[in-house]
Structures are given as C-alpha cells and as structure tokens.
Fold each of these.
Amino acid sequence: MATINFVRDRQKKLTKQQASDKRIMLIALGIFGVGAILSLSSLGLKIYFSTQLKNSLTETERVKSQILAVEETESTFVILIHKLKAMSEVMKVRQKKQDAVDYFSQVFGSQVLIEEMSFAQDKEDQLLTFKLLSPTVFILESVLKQLSSPELRQKYPEIETGSLERTENGAYSLNLAVKL
C-alpha cells in the first residue's frame, strides 16, 4: 500500500526538500546580509574618511594661506631683530671707546693735547691709539707715571707706549696704544 500511495511519499520528499531549501535560503540570506552590512560599512567608512581627508586638506590650505599672509611681517620682524642686535653690539663698542677716551682725557689732564686718535677692531681685540702732544717733557713724564699706576692698570691692563719725539715747535709727542 505504501507503494501505491506514491503521492504521499512524494509529498514527504518535497516537504523535506522544501525544509532543506528553506534552510539553505536562510543561510544564503544570512551570508548576503552580512556581505551587505560589510559593504555598507566599508562604504560608510570610505565616505567618512574621504570627508575627514577633505576637511584636513581644507584646514591645511587655510593654515598655509595664513602663514603666507604673515610671512612678510615675520621676515621684517626677524630682520629688525638682527639689526637691533647689530646696533646693540656697535653701541657697546662705541660706549667702551667713549668711556676710554673720557677716562684718558682726565688722566692726561688739560695740558696734554690728544693730537690724533684712531680705533681698530678685529674679531677679538679693540685697540685705541692716541698721539699725545705735551708742551714740556715734565708733563709727559707725569702722564707716564699715571699710566703705570695700579688703579689705571687694573682698569686697562694692556697699555703700550710708543716712541717719544720732539716736534719742530719744541713740544713732545708720544704714541700710546690701549687694548679695550
């Protein structure tokens, strides 16, 4: 009888086949869903990162334009600073020279005339030279005594005297070099 009623067997096989097909379809749908979610996620990440990149590039261009806008002001400022430093150094040297001239003018006194004065400077040393003119040798001798005094030698340790000469009009001339 089971062989006669083949529709029932066929119906059972179809039901099993439908259940198997349903299960395969659910698995395929799951795989398709996971693939769709992954695809949408990667598309979303791509859009997010491209937006972030675009924002970063825009910000970079904005900052670059700001830097270029103040570049001239900054270079002018840097040049001004270097000029001020150079002027400060020149003023220091000038002040040293002026202090030395004032000091030695007091040491020489009013009877000794500074006939010539020159200033030379190399990388490390500054040399101030005087050519003194005195009406008598005695005044010049007192100047030489003052030049060898401990107080003056402490302030200006390197003083060199040059040749002593008598001029045509009877005055005495002395060359003096002071290292500042």
Amino acid sequence: MSGALLAACGEMSVITTYKSYSPAGGLPPIGFNHQFGLNPVTSRDAFELERWFFSKDVFWEVYFWTSPQKIGFVPLGDTSAVVATRHAVTSVDLTIASEDPHTLSGLLVYPGNPGPETYAEQLLQVIRALGYDKFSSARVHIYFSELYQYAILNWSRSAGYSFDVLLKESPVAGAAPLPKPTAPPPIGSHPTTKTSR
C-alpha cells in the first residue's frame, strides 16, 4: 500500500502559492486579502489604515468588516463605485490588535476619561472620515495580542456609546499616550502607496 502511495506522489506537482498582500508582493489570486477586510474595498481601507498607524510608530493590526456584506465587491479603480460602497455601509465592525508594548501601554494611558474609550470613539470618527458616513451601528474590538480581547465599544444612533473592558490591565507608569488616530491621506496621494489592480 505504501508503494502505491509513493507512486501516486510521483504524479503530483508543487503549485506556487501566493504570499499575503504587501506593497511589493501584489495581490493574492482572489484580488484582495481577507486578512484585512471582508471585501476588496474594506480590505484596502484596513490595509491603508494599518500602514498609516505604522508611519506614526503605532503598531495595530487592522481588520474591517461591514454590512451589507456583498457591496464592497467593486473594481477598486472605479472611484465612484468605491465612494458609493462606503456611503452604502449600514454597520461597521473594526478590530485592532497589537502585541507591541509601546502601543498597548500608550492606549492604557490615553488622555480622557476613560482614555481607551476616547481612543475607540476617535477610531470611529476615522472610519467616518474615510467615507463610511451613513452607518447606524458600529463596534470597535480592541485585542491585546490576537488572543485576548481587551475591550469593545458599541455605538448605535438610538443608544449612543457603551464601552466594556473585558481584560483588566494597569497602565505603565510614565508611558506616553498614543497620538490621536487620524484618517490616512487618500489612496494614491503618497508615494509609497500602490493602488490595487
């Protein structure tokens, strides 16, 4: 039986696999990287937001989920379709995660009362600034590493904000707060950005 298996292996060939999306590496065969977002539009926006954080020495991994689920499957080169997609989103889930001590301690000492809630609310303003300005409900999930959910911010037009801390962590004495989150510049406006094909 083992001989038959080895003979069958001789007929197999290795298929080249695609690496995750990077500015230099191109796109995976499905046209976008689902590790960043639910569809091509949210995936690109999450990736650009992650790179924008990185340029500010803030190291969040970003994932962006929206509803309705199907509307983001539009050609990324069609600016009007991308803008219309963002306007049509009714619900937003933004997940950020980090293992970087500077980022996590900076969140814990973020100014405001309470600081991390203020930061999460500002992240929703960043999403609105990207053009997702019609949604009626949203959540921001904050993870310390990819395993431990630190907190969740819920927002809706009817109920407003609620913030639940799920993981008790103490601020690090003397840590510098994170810079205020801001929206990245429009895609294609800075030289290191590669637009999707």
Amino acid sequence: MSNAVMDLDIIRPKANIVKINNKEFDLSFIPVGITFEVDELVNQKLAKLDYQKLEKRDNEEIKKAFDLSIELCVTLLSFWDSSITKEWFLKNISSGQVEKLVEVIKTALEISYEGIKQYGKN
C-alpha cells in the first residue's frame, strides 16, 4: 500500500513581501483566520460608501473611506503583529503607504479567490 502525499502548498501563491516601517509581511495570501473579517470589510463596509460623494470630493466620505482603508490594513497586519493598531498606523504610516498597501491587499484577495475557483475546477 502506497502512502501518497497531497501537497496543498502548490495552491499557495508565491511570497509577496511588503515592508512597512521596518516590519515585513507576506501579503501573498489572506490567512483563513481573518478571512471573514477581511471579507466583511471589503464586501459590506466598503460597499456602503457613497461613491457619488467620493467623486464630488466630499470630505466626510473621503475620511470614511480612508478610515476603512486603515481598518483593512490593521485587520490584516495585526494578525501577524499584535502591536499594529489604528493608532500605530496613524503615527507611523503615510497616506501614500496606506493606498499602496490597500492595492496589495486587494490583489492578494483577487489571487486568493481566483486560486479557490481554479482549484475547484481541477
């Protein structure tokens, strides 16, 4: 009788290391431990933003969107490093870094969901 090994590491994306304020994180995937939190932020809270107000550069709506972006970043990064809080972010990270980090997180989510779909087809 042969013991076969099912290598599930093959469906994990290649590492995508992001360095921010001298801390490194592998954002190539979203850990299952925070999947629901991240999904709630992306699909429920961000969906409630008023994009017409954002286009009109409404300051309140812009602040709301920016706060949600920070919440998304903190939710993900604090999974690996509990010292990362909203306050830490506000003191240590620039708005440009937040924007880029959100882009990387969105890409990781897309890759993660695409990997799940692809694996399901196989």
